[in-house]
Amino acid sequence: MIATEALQTVQFVTVKGRRFAVLDAEDWEALVSWVEDLEDTQIARTAFAELNAAGGDRQRAGWLAWDEVEKELA
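Given the sequence above, the corresponding structure tokens read:
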């Protein structure tokens, strides 16, 4: 299920004067996945824009070399 379909399945209930949105757990997970994908896409767009602004120079763009990251993880 895609996020827009999940949004169409929402049901609203009122309890003690408060309105709540109720979703099936699978629909909720689809929405969370969709938001995560949007965040990842924005991160990638920003990183590539920075790389482009740095003339394709990864170091000038602030990208780390894999060897450096790998050492930190070890």
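The CA atoms of residues 6 and 27 lie 5 Å apart. Try to locate this feature in the token string yourself.
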